[in-house]
Amino acid sequence: MTPTGRVLDRQPESAGILGIFGLAVPEECGGTPVSTPCYVLITEELARGWMSLAGAAREADAGRRVGVEAGMAKLFASETAMRIALDAVRIHGGYGYSTEFDVERCFRDAPLMIVGEGTNEIQRNVIAAQLVKRGGLDA
């Protein structure tokens, strides 16, 4: 299986942890449903992230250099993870802070994706420099 396939296989699992399919909070705890607009926004963000990552993975599978594309996918995915984790905590309400729910771990871990392997601000500078170089704009 390609790296793309492994990553895409995890999408439903990740979405379920964040509570975007069906109930945010189990029925035994009140069964809070997720509103349709919220569901659509979060799903749209997830889809964009997966498409960005899948594009970079396809290029890598083809043997091409994907430093810029992978950097952009990491940047987008980490920013998206933070937004979705925050939305998930909002959806779960007080349960979002409870260690009984996986959303608490996602919310705690999301900032680590932004600062891990270089902060997103540094990542943006590296991407910009590579795009300028790729476009022949450097002096």
TrEMBL record:
MF GO annotations: acyl-CoA dehydrogenase activity; flavin adenine dinucleotide binding
Requisite cofactors: FAD
Protein name: Alkylation response protein AidB-like acyl-CoA dehydrogenase
Keyword Phosphoprotein: no
Protein's organism: Streptomyces violarus
Gene3D superfamilies on file: Acyl-CoA dehydrogenase/oxidase, N-terminal domain, Butyryl-CoA Dehydrogenase, subunit A, domain 3
UniProt cross-references to PANTHER family, sorted A to Z: ACYL-COA DEHYDROGENASE (PTHR43884), ISOVALERYL-COA DEHYDROGENASE, MITOCHONDRIAL-RELATED (PTHR43884:SF12)
SUPFAM superfamilies, alphabetized: Acyl-CoA dehydrogenase C-terminal domain-like (SSF47203), Acyl-CoA dehydrogenase NM domain-like (SSF56645)
Keywords associated with the record: FAD, Flavoprotein
One Pfam family in the UniProt entry: Acyl-CoA_dh_1
Residue ranges occupied by any Acyl-CoA dehydrogenase/oxidase C-terminal domain in the UniProt entry: 55-131
Similarity-based family: Belongs to the acyl-CoA dehydrogenase family.
Domain of life: Bacteria
